[in-house]
């Protein structure tokens, strides 16, 4: 999987992660994938809901030592 | 984009800092959902959008008195709870900084940057004696019909 962009939202509080991700996604082409890093414990629920409503695809997500990573493919 | 965007509308009636923060967080989140977002400011909520400096405008005595008694802008709002004669807001600002949360002025700026439509209710502006020059630039002005025009199409509709 080729990652076009990495968005670091570690340490940011609501609503900044989702705002940053939206801005980053606007710069991508359809089909490109970005990686989002977050330390917000609510981010898994947030991203799952956001991806569903905005019709993008959450390819996978993982958590490592308190850092959540989300891989989102633009529709 | 040809598809119709979803809409979110929020009525900010309260002039409390905590409620205004909640309103602006939801507005910014909705904008990140690619919604068309409108915040309609009425009554005490209008004070959130007041400029913090004194603006010279022609006013009667009552309007002037309202102007002195009401908070001048987002930085001056009180808390709905635990206000403690002004200590509460200081405490909240301290913990918000500690947790990296955006301040209310930053949230307002972010909302403007994201294209959130900020609408002031002209009827309550008259009641409170507020004039357009006293509110921050970039506001729109409308009444209940303007608000409802946005609200009928919005799935998210909040009164705060």
TrEMBL record, chain A:
<dbReference type="Pfam" id="PF01206">
    <property type="entry name" value="TusA"/>
</dbReference>
<feature type="domain" description="UPF0033">
    <location>
        <begin position="7"/>
        <end position="31"/>
    </location>
</feature>
<comment type="similarity">
    <text>Belongs to the sulfur carrier protein TusA family.</text>
</comment>
<dbReference type="InterPro" id="IPR001455">
    <property type="entry name" value="TusA-like"/>
</dbReference>
<dbReference type="InterPro" id="IPR036868">
    <property type="entry name" value="TusA-like_sf"/>
</dbReference>
<protein>
    <submittedName>
        <fullName>Sulfurtransferase TusA family protein</fullName>
    </submittedName>
</protein>
UniProtKB/TrEMBL annotation, chain B:
<dbReference type="InterPro" id="IPR027396">
    <property type="entry name" value="DsrEFH-like"/>
</dbReference>
<protein>
    <submittedName>
        <fullName>DsrE/DsrF/DrsH-like family protein</fullName>
    </submittedName>
</protein>
<dbReference type="InterPro" id="IPR032836">
    <property type="entry name" value="DsrE2-like"/>
</dbReference>
<dbReference type="Pfam" id="PF13686">
    <property type="entry name" value="DrsE_2"/>
</dbReference>
